[in-house]
Design a protein that fits this description.
Number of strands: 6
Strand order of the largest sheet: 1-2-3-4-5-6
Largest sheet: 6 strands, antiparallel
Number of helices: 5
Radius of gyration: 18 Å
Structural class: alpha+beta
Order of helices and strands: HEEEHHEEEHH
Helix content: 25-40%
C-alpha cells in the first residue's frame, strides 16, 4: 500500500511540475493553466485551459491592481485568492488556430471571441494595452513552425 501511495504522489507531482501556462489576453491579469493541446502545427490546432488557485496566487502576489495589504490594499493574499477563486474559479479558455492560414481565435469565458491573423502588419499595436502579447504567445504554442516563419520566436 505504501508503494502505491508513493507512486500516486510521484505521478501527481510530476504532472504539476509539467503544467504549462495558458497565456490570457491581459498582461495585467492572470494566466490560466494549459489543460490540453492537440493538432500542433496543423489547420486544426486547439488548446484548452482553466484557472487554478496557483494562477490566482501568482496574480495576487504580483498584485498589479494594488488590492493586497503588501501593495496598499485591504486584502491578504489568501483573501485575494479566495475572492478570485469564487468569482472566476470555474473559468475555462479555448484557442483554435489554423497554422496554415496563420489565424488564431481565442474564446474567453465571457465576452466576444478574439481573432488575429499572422503575420501582423508592421504597424500593429503589440503593447500590453492592445491585448496582443498573450495572443502571440498562444499562437506560438499552437503553431511553433509558423511562428518561426513569422519571426515571432525569441530565437529569430
Amino acid at each position: 500500500m505504501r508503494t502505491s501511495l508513493c507512486i500516486a504522489l510521484f505521478t501527481f507531482s510530476l504532472s504539476a511540475a509539467q503544467a504549462a501556462d495558458f497565456p490570457l489576453a491581459s498582461c495585467a491579469g492572470w494566466n490560466g493553466t494549459l489543460v490540453s493541446r492537440t493538432g500542433t502545427d496543423s489547420s486544426t490546432a486547439v488548446m484548452k485551459g482553466k484557472v487554478t488557485q496557483a494562477n490566482f496566487r501568482e496574480y495576487c502576489e504580483r498584485d498589479p491592481g494594488g488590492e493586497t495589504t503588501a501593495h496598499g490594499g485591504k486584502l491578504t493574499v489568501k483573501q485575494c485568492v479566495a475572492t478570485y477563486t469564487k468569482a472566476n474559479g470555474k473559468d475555462t479558455y479555448r484557442s483554435t488556430a489554423n497554422c496554415i492560414e496563420g489565424t488564431l481565435s481565442f474564446v474567453p469565458p465571457r465576452g466576444e471571441p478574439l481573432r488575429v491573423t499572422f503575420p501582423l502588419p508592421e504597424d500593429a499595436d503589440v503593447s500590453c494595452a492592445s491585448g496582443m502579447p498573450p495572443l502571440i504567445e498562444q499562437f506560438k504554442l499552437l503553431c511553433p513552425q509558423a511562428a518561426r516563419e513569422f519571426h515571432l520566436m525569441d530565437d529569430e
